[in-house]
Amino acid sequence: MRPLARPFFLIATLAPCAAHAQDAVQPEIVVIGTGLQAPPSAPAYNVQQIDRERLLETASGRLEDALSSVAGFQQFRRSDSRSSNPSAQGVTLRSLGGNATSRTLVLLDGVPMADPFFGHIPFSAIAPERLATARVTRGGGAGAFGAGAVAGTVELESANADQLGLVQAGALANDRGETELSGALAPRVGKGFAVISGRWDRGQGFWTTPVGQRVPISARARYDSWSAGLRLVAPLSTDVELQMRGLLFDDRRTLRFRGADTSSSGQDASLRLVGRGAWAFDVLAYVQARDFTNVVISSTSFRKTLDQRATPSTGVGGKAELRPPVGGNHVLRLGADYRLNDGDMAEDAYSAATGLVTARRRAGGKTSDLGLFLEDDWTLGRLVLNAGARADRWTIRDGYFLERSPSGATTIDSALDPAFADRSGWQASFRGGAVFRATDMLSLRAAGYTGLRLPTLNELYRSFSVVAPRSEGGIAITATQRNPLLHNEKLEGFEAGLDFTPAPGLAFNATAFDNRIRNAIANVTLGTSGNTTTRKRQNVDAVHARGLEFGARLRAGAISLDGSLAWTDAEVEASGISASLDGKRPAQTPRWAGTATLAWRPAERWSLGLTLRHVGAQFEDDLETDLLPSATTLDGFAQLPLHGPISLVLRGENLTGETIVTRLQDGSMDIGTPRTFWAGIRVEVR
């Protein structure tokens, strides 16, 4: 067991003691199990809430599927966490992407979930049935952990004992024989509660390669992943509670070819102390240990060409927020947060012709960010004003790249390269917003903000190659180079919108926005020679996105309708070595995205629903060479009580059998989830 996994077991040891200490606590104590309440100005920013029902009622059972109900939410590719490379699971909003790193901050109970080395989100480890809600804020922010929120924030909140019930379990299988098993036990412990949960997904997967492009070693997208969580919440006084959480996960997938195996694993632990008295506070500390492996197979010689055999990384950090009593019309937030990312990579390159090792490489480094923030909400009757400032002390240090020949001779040593020198600096960020309740039915809002994102260790220090067969024969190689001189990304943005509730159960919202990320990091094509295209991670002048976002919600008795639509005009502003990208649309960013869910819930535990989702056309690459066609899918979900706590669950993915192109390069393509039917049971004991 890795040393950084020990906090998980320490939490498990200390938790019963913390719970036992509550014997003298008064019975009127109410344990909430969440952070502090959102401030009054939260509606000034474009926020969409996804409730527990919607999280549980997805056709795939995956968290990323539920988050896609917010139009504009996207990963780098259209594949979900069963058939994509984990390192491509970066999250963005508002078409502010362009590479596989997350530009959206994803928090689970206040803890940033991005991988310390790559910046991707381990979606297979975050089971939706463990969650109470998800809050998606499109646009930047300067509050706690604001250094990563240049495209928005996704705040995931774990479910408490009341929401889970004593026992919750599920077992499903699909028409390919794949299975999904999950369970949670949430007993009361003194005046607090504990949650022990687990999930295991496995299957042979589907063919991601079209029939006409398969070769002898083509393989289905096989997957086998599990996660286990422990969460304990105990009151320390009438208004102070201790929250402890641990997470273990392991995820293994096969991508395109037999032997092209990838894995990601992690051990996370966190402690959180929340006080809801006159001097409210939220103090959090966490540690994450992650690893990643990846094998690349040649589609011509069928030999291994790269073995990224280990990428151990750690993320350590925390935050402290204080809300002093400054009067009923003010909510003042003072605080600091810190995150340290430390990671290394070890990989071996092989000759596709001989199968022999040609080079052994090591790379890695450290980045850190210390943020100090101040924010105030001021309520003046129907008007709420918000202003916040943040100062970040960032460092990029201890970067290195070392390459040796099979005999052990050093061929590249970054110790001789000044580009790998340590760097640091300060950067200020600001945000301000206003909400005006013009009438009981209409609210007007506006906001402006700045922010930053540090480059990831992957972007700074790791080069990689992608080998794919050409449709006309032969192979195409795309080699992307590292860049240790990358600058921080800087966000500038503003937006305005309205929220309209003309009648009970009926709500509409609309937002117009203009966001620009300066020094945006992109994979820039430098040129092509033979069958090899060379790209390099570069800071372009900016990625500029302007657009409109709409939302609607209808509640009429047992029937509900939720819709979201986003139109985004995004373009790259580039000069110098990246001038060929100027005016082009960022890679992997659609212009249109929309989703609508119609549901009928006639009684408790009864649910029938259909989800229609559309993603517009998007370019595979930075030069707009290959166009991924638009895709429109229809999903279905049903839950019907059978007997006592047992319900029948039926799910259908891509019911119309739409061909979803997830990758396209020189005619070679990958495709996404085909029509899939699931059936199983769910057990809920209160």
Automatic annotation (TrEMBL):
Gene3D superfamilies xref list: TonB-dependent receptor, beta-barrel domain, TonB-dependent receptor, plug domain
A Gene Ontology annotation in the biological process aspect, one of them, is: siderophore transmembrane transport
Q: Which domain of life is it from?
A: Bacteria
UniProt keyword Lyase, yes or no: no
Q: Which GO terms describe its cellular component?
A: cell outer membrane
Q: Which UniProt keywords apply?
A: Cell outer membrane, Membrane, Receptor, Signal, TonB box, Transmembrane, Transmembrane beta strand, Transport
PROSITE patterns linked to this entry: TONB_DEPENDENT_REC_3 (PS52016)
The subcellular localization recorded is: Cell outer membrane
> Main localisation, per the record?
membrane
**Pfam families in UniProt:** Plug (PF07715), TonB_dep_Rec_b-barrel (PF00593)
Q: Where is the TonB-dependent receptor plug domain?
A: 44-153
Signal peptide coordinates? 1-21
Single GO MF annotation: siderophore uptake transmembrane transporter activity
Q: Where is the TonB-dependent receptor-like beta-barrel domain?
A: 220-655
What membrane topology is annotated for this entry?
Multi-pass membrane protein
User: SUPFAM superfamilies, alphabetically?
Assistant: Porins
**Membrane among the record's keywords?**
yes
Alphabetical list of InterPro entries matching this protein:
Beta-barrel_TonB, Beta-barrel_TonB_sf, Plug_dom, Plug_dom_sf, TonB-dep_rcpt-like
Similarity comment? Belongs to the TonB-dependent receptor family.
**Name the UniProt record assigns to this protein:** TonB-dependent receptor
